[in-house]
Amino acid sequence: MATLSRLALGALCAAATLPAFAHAEEFTPETVTLKETIDPGPNVFVYQQELKGAGSIAVFSKDDLAFKGFMTAGVMGQMLIGADGKTAYGQSNYMKRLTHGPNEQVLEIYDIAKLSATREVILPPKATQALGYVPMLQQTATGKFLLVQNATPATSVTIVDLAAGAVTEEIPTPGCYGIYPSASGDKFATACGDGTFVSFTLGADGKMAEKLAGEKAFDVDADPVFITAAPYDGGYVFVTYGGKAIVLKDADGPLKTVETIALNDGIEGNWAPGGYELVAVNAKTGVLFITMHPDAKDGSHKAAAHEIWAYDLKAKKLLSRSPVEHIVSIAVSPDDKPVLFGTTETGSLLRFETDPAAGYALKAAGEAGLTGFPLVVQVVE
Fold first, then answer.
1. In DSSP terms, which residues pair with 249 in a beta bridge?
2. How many CB atoms lie within 10 A of CB 62?
3. Which domains, from first to last, does the chain contain?
4. Helix or strand or coil: residue 176?
5. What is this structure's pTM?
6. Where in 203-316 does DSSP place strands (E)?
7. Which of 41, 101, 48 is nearest to 74 (CA)?
8. How would DSSP label each residue in 2-56?
9. Three-state DSSP class for 378?
10. 5 phi/psi in degrees, rounded to 5
11. For 308-356, what is each residue's pLDDT tens digit?
């Protein structure tokens, strides 16, 4: 008892020496606020595709790669940013049990300023479940129709009337894959396994009004084309596994070849294109940027870039070769002095400024972190 009394007395004495916390300033909790809209200015968008859960569309400042936020999506989806930079579209898969069971496929329409989905359209359960590729989700030049690539594995294209918020038709495209809208009207083409392109024109009701088959544009056995192409001069630039650029236009009918350019002629080291979104053209300068790797061989067409080449399509001249690492997808701004953005297999978004006086050679100018498998990148002023 005596020991307990001494302990109690000691505790009382110690308490008497402690500061008077009861008289300290009252704690004021931080007030959490939510910005109504993201900061203004041109943006870079990256679809962060996830193979094991929900993906997202990440938004960064074009000028300094400051992260502005993201728009949530489903599993194994695709992304498209509207030409005005105000609306984003996402084709997503919502899997009830993730690895098996029912799968609801949805076209989600986002307000970019608010980073929120505003509408959705339920799609037929046929949309391709593939890695991120630009030609899987496209919009006609008028902006009226959204085009979704299907693969069950039978191929077709779902047409969505955006004003009505409804599917109008599913157009069969047997043996053909990828969607390439025309520069005007409600018309698109698709690449076929025999080396041709088939073009489709839509009526005002969103149903097929005309179908035209084109001439053979590439050799699927000797030198096939990548499925990703870059808009250029009212048409598209496709590149082949071997390193040719093929310019195709559809001004007077289906897509057909108007020019073929050997990009790597006279270059030692067996350099060839590789990657996913591997080509980008700056329309004002006519400069093609392309991801390249050395020692190319059968099966290396998805290899990450060791260099990014800048090629003048009008002068048919290689302007510069810039060393890079791990880049598999690129996009370029429409500026007179273009800015190039690249995503890597290691989860980075890289920003490069170009020097027109040095053949548009690249200079590293920023980096941001990414998640998932970021293969689709788009920049909008």
1. 235, 256
2. 19
3. 263-381 (2.130.10.10)
4. strand
5. 0.90
6. 208-213, 230-232, 235-239, 244-249, 256-262, 272-273, 279-282, 287-293, 305-312
7. 48
8. HHHHHHHHHHHHHHHHS--GGGSPPP-PPPP---SSPPPS-EEEEEEE-SSS--E
9. strand
10. -65, -40
11. 999 999 999 999 999 999 999 999 999 999 999 999 988 999 999 999 9
